[in-house]
Every structure is written in structure tokens, then in C-alpha cells.
Amino acid sequence: MIYVVLPAYNEEKNIAPLIDGLTELSQLVPDIVPLLVDDGSSDGTAEEARRLGQKLHLQVIQHETNKGLGAAIMTGLRVVCKSANDDDIVVLLDADNSHNPNYVIGMTKLINKGNDVVIASRYQPGAKEVGLSHFRSAGSRLMSLALASVFSVKGAKDYTCGYRAYRISIIRKGFAEYGDQLVSETSFVCMAELLVKLFSVGAKVAEYPLVLRYDLKQGKSKMNIGRTLKRYLHFVVSQAKTIKQVRSRYFSSS
User: Fold this and answer.
1) Residue 226 CB: number of other CB atoms within 10 A?
2) Given 72, 73, 114, 224, which residue has the most CB atoms within 10 angstroms?
3) What averages of pLDDT result for each successive group of 10 residues across the chain (254 residues)?
4) Domain boundaries, the chain
């Protein structure tokens, strides 16, 4: 099975094209199980998802209050791990219509070739960013380079993109090691955190080229650049030592 988890916050305007994309994907890959985690939206995100996702059997889980992206991801991963088999795959996909669901096909092929994590990457040949400001693009690239200098995740160039496929067994391994702290960051930093923590427990990482369609997104960005940069710094300072210690233990025993 391929579980597709969609963390969403105030994405009512983007739900319809997203559901259309998932419907197209389900026709090509019948074993898709979609799950939307509504993180306390103040608009009609959950209602629109339920209405449009009936034919897909889209499950919708709601947080009563906005808890942040990391909390939405943790909710989705916990729900999936309750029923999935170790060889199943879970894909995290942004709900803002900037990620084409059809990339799931190529990404899961790389999982089936022996990788544990596959990143839809903006930094592979054939990748492209459409509609993203030069400032945001440069900031993401610089942050990935900075994180690479600290954590050196083999196989990863894009540390921050939220579009990824994971083998369920590596998610369970991450939970076994880190428990509720597998994703402790609530901001966009959680994506880098999840990547480096899974790598620390032995994940094999690969990338698949992504064409990011930020021009298709309706509504303003929810990222506060200054606050996010501070959270990245806090993450590195507070967790780098522990993560490296876990990594040395797993890699020395392999």
C-alpha cells in the first residue's frame, strides 16, 4: 500500500485541484490510501476535503487548534503506522497544490529499489522551481547547504522540501529510537529534522527531480522567514549532538 499524508492548514482554495491530482494518481496506482490532517484550519479545508474526497475514500483528521506542521506530520505518521506493513510506503505531500501527486510513481519506484527515504528534490537534473521568488529559492538552497555541512546526509541535497516518500519500516525505526521526539519542531524545520533523524538510524536516502509549481498555489505563504531561520539555528544547536551520537551508534554497528 502507498499511504499519502497531506498536512493542511487553511488550504480550502487548493483542495479541489489537489483532489483532482490524487484521483488521477489513483487511476494509475490503485493501492493509494489518502489521509488529510487538518491542523486547526479557520477556513473550510476539512469540509471541502470531505466533500470532494468521498470517491477517493479520503480520511480527514482534524486538530482542534493549530499545532504546527510538525504536529500534523506526527499525527499522520502515527495513524499510518497503526495499520501499515513494514514494506508499505508513506508519502508526505504538501496540500497547497505546488506538488504534483504523479511524482509518487517515480518516487516509490526508488523506494522499491532499496531506498528508505526518497526526496522530491529541487536540486537534481531536470528539476525546476516555477513561481518561487529568488529570495525564497536562494534561502532554501543556502539552508540545505548549511544543514549538509552539519549533518552530511548521504544522498540528500534538498533538506527542506516537504514532498518525500518513506518506507514504513524506517519510520517505525525512527519512532523506536526517538519516540515522541521524532518530530519535535512545529515549524517548517520539521522536514529537516525528520530527514536527519531517520538518516541517523540508518536510512538510505535518494532523490527524485521535482518541478515545484508554486505558481499554482492559491493564497499567501505561511512561512515567516525570520522565525524559520531562528528555528533552524535552534534545531542545530539543541539537537545536533544527540543526533550525531545516535548516528554513530547505528553506523558503527552496521
Assistant:
1) 7
2) 72
3) 97 95 94 97 96 96 96 98 97 94 97 98 90 77 90 95 97 97 94 97 97 79 75 91 92 64
4) 2-252
